[in-house]
Design a protein that fits this description.
This protein is of the alpha/beta class. The chain is built from twelve helices and 22 strands. Helix content is 30%, strand content 26%.
């Protein structure tokens, strides 16, 4: 008789948890997974997938405007938020069904309910207790809300996907990728948008030139960006209008809007899981502290994805889930996940694609770096007349000539950087970039034709 009910019990049926459970089951392990909401997790249900669909929808306004420069006459167009949301919901339901079917076909037992640890080998789901040799925590993250007066009147990205009515005036609090993405969505669909961010520039942690360029470009679209500002409170007026009090330096003012959306970061969803009681070490934000193999401080308990508070990206969670399952049941050496040079994108308008080091990071790690940068009007804008510019940047170690980072703001940036990410990960040099023939006419060819450089040394900074 087996000592435990399962070889692996996974808490959380998001991208990382689903991948880990399916791979483990394919190796012959007895696997179960618990989910208290919907199979698919943040990315599929209330994250990158529905967000990308809304981004697509928000582009049509400019596309219709640009069409006239190319000889098209577009008239009588109109937009329906309820139709968009209904169609989005239908697609999300379809994807959830696919994820559920994948688990079923993999012979993974699905437990519906909120799971928590009783001890290092026992999990409680609802009124039932089950045991497992190994436990994997893959519960993701959750939006972080500050404790200010009137916060109960505000929404996060979770609720933004389900709004019955499109808000005509939106205040978005925050300056990260979720904030700028939703600013573009709402503005593209016709809402008046104000972004309030306490920092000096949006997209903290990104390359400084990327931050400045994107700020200028989204400002051209009519998005009001208020930096070094703090929302002190939100009041709901009798007619339903929300009045936010904003402090800019020493000056205080109010702004009336129909929705206040907070995008001030996410925290690991570990509350109520019984992790600390089981001896699992958490960081200051509540994230599960793990090693490079996904192992927590307690033998037999693992964690992957956003709940570990490392790189909060779906492909990273998937790779980590694969690694844990292979380590446990693959029969070979433990699988270490490499978190260096992970490409990422911001689906702002225009979008951002980036991989590798920022200029500041490169300067801190190398004696001297070379910067190659281009700023140009994309070909599409020549006939449309749109005031838009694309920025590209390569960061090179002056000694080895290895390309340490690549950054782009402009149309198709995420698609372009995915390919460049392979080159950066492979450690290719600037000379190898230069030896590659560009595809003309494309924006991407700039990445292999840039020759003018500026040099920056660590001493100079």
């Amino acid at each position: 008789m087996p000592q435990f009910d399962y070889d692996l019990f996974v808490i959380g049926a998001g991208s990382g948890g689903v991948r880990a459970s399916r791979v483990a089951a394919a190796f012959g392990a007895r696997v179960a997974i618990a989910e208290h909401y919907r199979v698919g997790g943040t990315c599929v249900i209330r994250g990158c997938v529905p967000k990308k669909l809304l981004v697509y929808a928000s582009h049509f306004h400019e596309d219709f405007e640009d069409a006239s420069g190319y000889g098209w006459t577009v008239s009588g167009s109109s937009f329906s938020w309820p139709i968009l949301i209904a169609n989005k919901n239908r697609e999300i339901a379809r994807l959830e069904g696919i994820y559920s079917k994948l688990l079923e076909n993999s012979k993974v037992t699905v437990h519906r309910g909120r799971a928590s640890l009783i001890d290092t080998h026992t999990v409680k789901v609802g009124d039932r207790q089950v045991t497992a040799d190994s436990i994997l925590v893959a519960t993701g993250g959750w939006p972080n809300l500050p404790k200010i007066p009137g916060i109960e009147h505000c929404i996060t990205s979770n609720e933004a996907f389900e709004l019955a009515v499109q808000p005509g005036r939106v205040l978005i609090v925050g300056g990260g990728y979720i904030a700028v993405e939703f600013a573009g969505i709402f503005r593209g669909l016709g809402s008046e948008v104000t972004v309030s961010y306490r920092g000096d520039q949006i997209l903290r942690g990104f390359d400084e030139d990327v931050r400045a360029h994107l700020s200028r470009e989204i400002g051209k679209k009519g998005i009001d960006i208020e930096l070094r500002s703090n929302v002190r409170g939100v009041e709901k007026l009798p007619d339903g209008t929300l009045r936010a009090t904003i402090l800019n330096g020493q000056a205080e003012r109010t702004i009336d809007c129909d929705a206040v959306m907070y995008a001030t970061g996410r925290r690991p969803a570990t509350k109520g899981l019984g992790l600390e009681e089981a001896g699992v070490r958490l960081d200051d934000d509540g994230g599960v502290v793990v090693d490079e193999y996904g192992r927590s401080s307690v033998p037999g308990i693992f964690a992957v994805g956003d709940v570990t508070n490392r790189i909060a990206l779906t492909p990273v969670a998937i790779r980590e889930g694969l690694g844990v399952a292979t380590t446990l049941f693959g029969g070979g050496a433990p699988v270490r996940i490499d978190h260096n040079d992970v490409p990422s994108a911001v689906f702002s308008q225009p979008p951002v694609g980036t991989v590798g080091m920022t200029e500041a990071q490169a300067i801190a790690s190398c004696d001297q770096v070379e910067i190659y940068q281009a700023d140009f009007r994309p070909m599409k804008a020549t006939l449309s007349g749109r005031d838009e510019r694309t920025m590209m940047k390569l960061i090179v170690d002056a000694k080895s000539q290895r390309v340490l980072g690549a950054h782009m703001v402009g149309g198709d940036a995420p698609e372009i950087i995915q390919g460049i990410g392979i080159a950066v990960k492979a450690g290719l040099t600037k000379q190898q970039f230069d030896a590659t023939v560009g595809i003309h006419p494309t924006a991407a060819e700039e990445l292999v034709t840039m020759r003018e450089k500026r040099s920056v040394s660590r001493a100079a900074t």
